[in-house]
Design goal:
This protein is α+β, with helices and mostly antiparallel strands and about 375 residues long. The protein is about 15% helix and about 25% strand.
Length: about 375
């Protein structure tokens, strides 16, 4: 049986101790660091072969100026060394276009501007995707009033690269960002998708397991996602597809019970995140991830007064609404479930120490993950 428990007082003390010990940016940002450093919505197979075009059209900013701002925004991300962009001529099909859009909703694939406060948006991660800029926005080209064109483009390019919105308000990928360039949280996300970045506290590092003969590529490390002393982590097949996800949750009093779930594809690459999901793993309770007899997947939360709260995961790995808190004769059912996991679903794995074994890509052989504790 897997039981994951923690003492919130102890964790809070660890968290305080953690701050100030290191000059690493990640450590300095704790414990205010958010519920999940980053989220992702997809990945490119070849992130160094992304091509682009500015659609030639009249807009509120002269084409040559827009070109310059786009090139600068792309350059900011290229400097990470893991992605690269190439401009292609008219007539060629680029990976993505940049164009002005208005309030008339001329494209079926997006929302017209003017209905909410958004001034830009981007399309899904597939060839032919786009960045749309609101043609009636008051754009700022420098420090003046108005919406910063530079920051907006950098943020939208982050979406194009696969990053989704981030709960870290200081991040470039925060919905209402004020950042001037990608921050530690943004870079943690980008490098978790595409590799790179030096090791740091909170990395979850994949290591080959010789005994089980791991084949194929190892996943890229998840960068900075599980700061020691502030988080616990486990492997669990939340969507029942036969491969494990990595689950990370905050344990400190300010955590809001937030859970992050990292899904990998068949190539063992990070593909999507679920979360941060608030109030799912409350720090004052014991949480168990449990596989049921029918392949159903549960979060069992046991509070100090003996009350239980149950949540199931749906087929996409999203926790459903909790049952009312209750005293249940649940022990028997729980024991049965653990004893007879259905084939096809992967049971939970939680750590004794800080390394775990699981099957992230669903190929039947195991990957070995360990938490990086120290600064490099
Ligand atoms: Zn649009
Ligand atoms: Zn956005």
């Amino acid at each position: 049986m897997v039981r994951i428990s923690f003492a919130c007082g102890l964790m809070a003390a660890c968290a305080q101790q953690h701050v100030g010990v290191s000059t690493d940016v990640t450590a300095r940002a704790e414990p205010e660091a958010p519920m999940g450093r980053f989220t992702v919505r997809g990945r490119w197979e070849n992130p160094r072969e992304l091509t682009w075009q500015v659609v030639p059209q009249d807009g509120p900013i002269a084409p040559e100026i827009l070109d310059r701002f786009v090139a600068e925004a792309l350059d900011v991300w290229e400097r990470t060394g893991v992605v690269a962009f190439r401009r292609v001529a008219e007539g060629q099909q680029p990976t993505f276009t940049i164009s002005w859009h208005g309030a008339d909703g001329s494209s079926a694939s997006c929302r017209p501007f003017g209905r909410d406060n958004s001034v830009a948006h981007s399309g899904p991660l597939s060839d032919g995707t786009f960045i749309h800029l609101d043609e009636s926005c008051d754009w700022s080209l420098g420090e003046g009033s108005g919406e910063s064109l530079s920051r907006t483009l950098q943020h939208e390019v982050g979406h194009i690269l696969g990053l989704d919105h981030c709960a870290d308000e200081s991040a470039l990928m925060a919905p209402l960002t004020t950042a001037s360039g990608p921050t530690e949280s943004d870079l943690a996300g980008l490098h978790s998708l595409y590799g790179g970045l030096h090791g740091g506290p909170g990395d979850l590092l994949p290591v080959a397991v010789q005994q089980t003969g791991t084949e194929g590529p190892l996943p890229f490390p998840l960068r900075r996602v599980a700061p020691p002393g502030l988080t616990e982590w486990a492997l669990f097949d939340t969507d029942g597809d036969g491969s494990h996800e990595v689950l990370v949750w905050r344990t400190d009093a300010k955590s809001l019970g937030a859970l992050m779930i990292y899904h990998f594809n068949e190539e063992a690459q990070l593909e999507r995140t679920v979360g941060p999901l608030l109030n799912v793993v409350p720090p004052e309770a014991d949480t168990t991830f449990m596989l049921g007899v029918h392949g159903d997947r549960w979060i069992v939360t046991e509070f100090a007064d003996g009350l239980l709260r149950l949540r199931s995961f749906d087929e996409r790995g999203w926790p459903q609404r909790p049952t009312p808190q209750q005293h249940l004769g649940f022990e028997k059912e729980r024991a049965q479930a653990i004893a007879a996991p259905s084939s096809g679903s992967r049971g939970p794995v939680a750590g004794e120490g800080d390394s775990l074994r699981g099957d992230l890509d669903g190929d039947g052989s195991e990957e070995f993950l360990m938490r990086f504790e120290e600064g490099s």
